């Protein structure tokens, strides 16, 4: 059953005050998330961490030995460590919760008499929701209007065939179970596969059929990525190696000294120093905060793998309409079937009589509630130029709609008016309308010339036809009507002002931009030229693409950057052909038919405003504002995130070399123990915030968008960067070990204090050096990142207290040293890291970033 004649304007929807009351009464329209980690869940996972267990073991050993100060200090440090990790993980969880809200299906509702798009979780019982093809239904609802709606309810019924819907004739209709034809209800989680309509919400959240079954949709999906799996393997290898060495050291100490307590403490200390527990935490923080940073640029990351891949993108395949252009269509040129042409200026208030029928039938061929920008433009022009004339028939109703399909790019509507029979209007691609009208060869030639003229001006062209059908029955196909060509409408969609600069930036970054559009080749070429796209390879049309085999298509794609008259299904072939050429592909899309291409692309990018929920669910990224500039910003952020992650990992690897080495080598050499667990805990208090907060907040490297994309197969620890990390750590280890050996004659506690001071100074210096691998130390001071100075000042203050306060000196096993010796230790430690400024000054480290 079709939408009744009355306008949707009679529906006012809920008032804002009523919405607030119902939100309080019924709660948000969401299902309980079983995988949400609350404070207690995070705390339990942290308490099971190996580092926490080792800290408690060390504290217990000291307490058993009667060293109350050391035991309590380590217990306090364990609690502080737990607090830091819980804070960081809760921060990440809050970020994911916000992103989950963004990722939920959107709903178009009528409230206070106005259409408003809101998050699906804010829908309440009694809301009026507008549903259309490609939408995921946000709640159980009854249809008040129905215009050819079919819905896929397989999530609820297991039946994959879409079912037809009708309007709810009376409130006596009982709410039926999902499934079956001609139900007046749509259900939460189901997908509208065809048509559009208006529905009143009956049940939300757990009260919906979906809630009763207990399924959940629309979550941000930060599944384990290839990088996370690689880090997991690395951590397991390093942890097993560290524990093996710790066990061997404990046995060695017991054999040499016969003291089991000392052996256990030495083994625990080495295990704590070698345990790479920061790696997985850093990756989790970077991915979560990376997703949050992207969302601030109006890009929602639905999959963590997309964040990893962004910096490696080599091809951006983008839609023209709404991405490169503003998606604000205006009628710019009219062509009547008799050959008359009219340029329509923005201030035009009336039209010559020759063009009234053209606009009238264009309106009749459009849906009463225009969603498509082209239909909206036609409605606006008609309201302005035909108001009060006999050409607007507000009392007519749609008797039948013949949908546009990939096979035939035209749609028709049959209207029932006051007179007998039906008035039929059609609009669509000029070649499809020409086919409907059975044009004579000369008329077809004139039409093609007019289309070419409009397209060469960068206009999008649609043709309009009309006819009368006597009835009483309507035919099953559009082709069974007798249509007459009425004319052409040329619509302008201005290019976004930021696009030429963004495309130039992509070119400088080694990224190819390819435009994919359903428009004519001449229109595509005009827009591509204005945007600054490469036209050397010409324009490849959908018809030409269909005639090419896969190998020939891949070869053509090495040169072609503009694709016209492309069907949504052909986007998948483009993605696969680009991938066959070794490209890392980002593909944009908004429709139901775009989903396969979005899934196949390395980075699927769905349009948030005009995109369907199906496209959003298939994509890795969602543009909350449909703007090409946001994609470029996302690539820039992706490069920054990966670059900073590489620096953080390099720093972690570098600083663990001297820590583990200084815990092991003095004992092997026969020197007194240098480190106790309290020293490792102090160093971890520096390392954890540095690697997870300081490096994550670093600005991008200069010229990050003037270098080629990284290879997707390039590991986080390439041989060069791994060698660089080991070199950094090795130099610091050698310097501090030398200092410890030279100062041992002055006393073990004096030597330990000086060596530890040098190591802390080297640690902080490594932070400063690794902030940038291309910008020198002095210039890096101008890079805004307050967390760097907070960590350095806090670490320096605690070190001064540990060296200056007698009670703390005892806990750290330090003895008083003269200021000159301490300054010398600081200089030695800082110098062991600052020497890296020399190769940086010659640009030898830039390839690492």
SSE blueprint and pairings:
Blueprint: H1 16-26, H2 39-47, H3 50-64, H4 68-103, E1 106-111, E2 114-119, E3 128-132, E4 140-152, H5 154-157, E5 163-164, E6 185-186, E7 191-203, H6 209-213, H7 226-257, H8 260-274, H9 278-296, E8 299-301, H10 304-310, E9 315-319, H11 320-324, E10 330-336, E11 341-343, H12 356-364, H13 373-385, E12 397-402, E13 410-416, E14 422-428, H14 430-437, H15 441-456, E15 460-469, E16 484-492, H16 499-508, E17 512-516, H17 521-531, E18 539-541, H18 542-547, H19 550-556, E19 562-564, H20 568-580, E20 585-589, H21 595-600, E21 603-607, H22 613-618, E22 621-623, H23 628-669, H24 677-694, H25 719-743, H26 748-770, H27 777-780, H28 786-804, H29 806-812, H30 819-834, H31 837-841
Parallel strand pairs: 9-17, 9-20, 17-19, 18-19, 20-21, 21-22
Antiparallel strand pairs: 1-2, 1-3, 3-7, 4-5, 4-6, 4-7, 8-22, 10-11, 10-16, 12-13, 13-14, 14-15, 15-16
Kindly describe this structure.
The protein has 31 helices and 22 strands. With 849 residues, the protein is α+β, with helices and mostly antiparallel strands. Strands 8-22-21-20-9-17-19-18 form an 8-stranded mixed beta sheet, with helices on both faces. Strands 1, 2, 3, 4, 5, 6 and 7 form a 7-stranded antiparallel beta sheet that branches. A 7-stranded antiparallel beta sheet has the order 11-10-16-15-14-13-12, with helices on both faces. Helix 22 links the parallel strand 21 and strand 22. Helix 9 runs parallel beside helix 24 and helix 25 runs antiparallel to helix 26. The longest helix is centred in the last third of the chain and has 42 residues. The radius of gyration is 34 Å and the shape is elongated.
